[in-house]
Design a protein that fits this description.
homodimer; alpha+beta; 7-stranded mixed β-sheet
Chain lengths: ~160, ~160
């Protein structure tokens, strides 16, 4: 039996470890640019890493929104391909929910790309609902150009009180 | 005489306006990827735009560090090329300093690329000192690989009490 990965606070030194593997974890998609060092320096109170035997198995970067009272935001989550479907994503999200709920948040938002159907399904399983968009891809509502020209996004929100 | 640009809180709707001009303001360098929508949704309490006659002339994205008590961080500042050397960058920084000082911050940090000698000179004029690095470019201390492989950074810190 394999020991469960240990979840702990993200550290600045995790930045290099994450950047070294993240594009590979995402099947070659260039994702490193979404994770500048600032997230690993300043959001370590609401961001987490999981490791087993000193090997990184997953991480989550999120924060309490300073401008939107009661709201938290999950920016990025990554799980080692060999660790998927074993509940680590669920544990990382659950850890984040607990921490931001204790700080008074009542809802969490997140976004993903419409091509990432696995992420849409995961967020639905985690209790998120899809926010309305101005277009649809299949039956998925999409906010076109939400993150810039051509950067459409599916937007999620979850009530933390339920 | 040209009216002074008006500084106001950044708004989510500024994202599209900034993304449309930012690479051009930076002389063709691809900077838009550094400004995902999240900064325009969640950090509007400590981020600012400047405009004159409804035209965007500059902006600053910054935040109070949730994980480092007393610290604030400036992520990005942009000024229209035709508006430079007229004090708008100084006014944007001054507005940020006042807001984060009122929220208990005693220091501000920022980083830039070693190639951006204009930014190094600007930060020095604004009262920042350069933090130690593990290498030097000219006489500038540089933290090699600070933002990932090949992504060296000059790091600045300013005491807000002086």
């Amino acid at each position: 039996m394999i020991a469960e990965a240990r979840i702990r606070a993200l550290r600045p030194s995790d930045h290099a470890r994450v950047i070294a593997v993240i594009d590979q974890w995402w099947g070659g998609r260039p994702m490193a640019r979404m994770l500048p060092r600032l997230f690993f320096d300043h959001f370590t109170d609401t961001s987490f890493a999981a490791d087993r035997d000193d090997a990184l198995t997953g991480f989550l970067v999120g924060f309490v929104s300073p401008a939107r009272p009661g709201e938290a935001y999950i920016h990025f989550v990554g799980v080692h391909p060999g660790e998927r479907s074993h509940g680590l994503g669920r544990r990382l999200y659950g850890t984040f929910f607990d921490v931001v709920r204790a700080r008074g948040c009542t809802r969490v938002r997140a976004v993903t790309s419409p091509v990432n159907t696995g992420s849409v399904a995961f967020h639905r399983r985690m209790g998120f609902r899809l926010e309305p968009g101005d277009a649809e891809v299949g039956d998925i509502p999409v906010a076109t150009g939400y993150d810039g020209p051509g950067q459409d996004r599916v937007r999620f929100v979850r009530d933390l009180r339920s």
